[in-house]
């Protein structure tokens, strides 16, 4: 069939080529929506990250190709013994503890039915996810070999990941195999007029004065807060604002509190990356600003650690309905 034109780098056919990002299920990276949502879920065929319809706007603008998945469930019929136990319980007969146990432990089972389609969005449309931003939507398989290979690789990975125990995170955490930034090798660096002090108490956000979640631009030496999180924590976003204010020419930043002799959180704001990355020349880039990497010690949680904490807090808040005014039921 006739498909839209594309470049090979717009698709991924393995975990490695998908920026090392593994997935266990089709769930939005920003909220708890899954493919069971009436609007389905959209999974980038470049990064393999999934987004609900409302969160598509937060994905990288240049990502065009997505697998749209919608899932429906059909309840399987219970076997006769469980049906009998169910009838006993509904009639108030709870004298048989075995009946009660069997009924409780035999949770309803479902058959899941998935429908897949490949959706291509217009990268120049700022409202990604709207009807007028869709260039084409084709049921999978599309007939285009490269596109179908990318979808097939994603689905095979999902099948493999779903068979692992819940506490097995191998191949799932995005920081296990970060990709090298294309900008690291020839990163421009302005002359160092004022070296960054080694005393961490002298590090401040240039915009708001905060001393936490500070990111230094490796090209300009500018220190600013990271982005604000969904729960209000984080920073004022000065680091990203500086990248935009300087013509988007200085994409790489490092989290100052994460730097050690062997590790550090480096992020690329470049539109074609916009992700955690590896800077093979980080020690050299830090040295330019007077920072000796081999002497640095970690003083803050990494981005991955913070994300785990945020997710735990969000899930607990949802379960306890924290912050909500509840009405009495009696």
From TrEMBL:
InterPro entries reported in the protein's UniProt record: UBP13_Znf-UBP_var (IPR041432), Znf_RING/FYVE/PHD (IPR013083), Znf_UBP (IPR001607)
Ranges for domain UBP-type: 179-293
An annotated Gene Ontology molecular function: zinc ion binding
Entry keywords, A to Z: Metal-binding, Zinc, Zinc-finger
Taxonomy, superkingdom: Eukaryota
Protein name: UBP-type domain-containing protein
């Amino acid at each position: 069939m006739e498909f839209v034109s594309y470049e090979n780098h717009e698709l991924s056919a393995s975990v490695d080529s998908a920026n090392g990002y593994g997935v266990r299920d089709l769930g939005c990276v920003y909220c708890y929506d899954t493919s069971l949502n009436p609007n389905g879920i959209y999974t980038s065929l470049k990064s393999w990250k999934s987004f609900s319809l409302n969160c598509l706007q937060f994905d990288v603008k240049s990502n065009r190709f997505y697998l749209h998945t919608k899932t429906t469930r059909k309840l399987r019929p219970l076997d006769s013994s469980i049906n009998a136990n169910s009838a006993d319980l509904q009639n108030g007969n709870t004298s048989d503890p075995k009946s009660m146990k069997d009924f409780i432990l035999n949770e309803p089972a479902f058959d899941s039915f998935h429908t897949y389609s490949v959706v291509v969005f217009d990268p120049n449309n700022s409202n990604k996810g709207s009807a007028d931003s869709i260039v084409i939507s084709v049921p999978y398989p599309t007939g285009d070999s490269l596109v179908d290979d990318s979808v097939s690789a994603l689905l095979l990975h999902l099948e493999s990941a779903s068979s692992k125990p819940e506490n097995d995170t191998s191949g799932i955490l995005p920081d296990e195999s970060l990709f090298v930034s294309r900008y690291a090798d020839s990163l421009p660096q302005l002359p160092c007029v004022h070296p960054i002090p080694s005393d961490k108490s002298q590090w401040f956000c240039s915009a708001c004065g905060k001393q936490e979640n500070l990111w230094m631009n490796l090209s300009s030496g500018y220190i600013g807060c990271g982005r604000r999180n969904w729960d209000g924590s984080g920073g004022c976003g000065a680091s990203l604002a500086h990248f935009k204010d300087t013509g988007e020419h200085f994409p790489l930043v490092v989290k100052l509190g994460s730097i050690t002799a062997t590790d550090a959180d480096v992020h690329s704001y470049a539109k074609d990356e916009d992700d955690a990355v590896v800077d093979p020349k980080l020690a050299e880039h830090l040295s330019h600003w007077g920072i000796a990497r081999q002497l640095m010690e970690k003083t803050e949680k990494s981005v991955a650690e913070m994300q785990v904490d945020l997710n735990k807090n969000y899930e607990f808040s949802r379960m306890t309905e924290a912050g909500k005014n509840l009405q009495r039921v009696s």
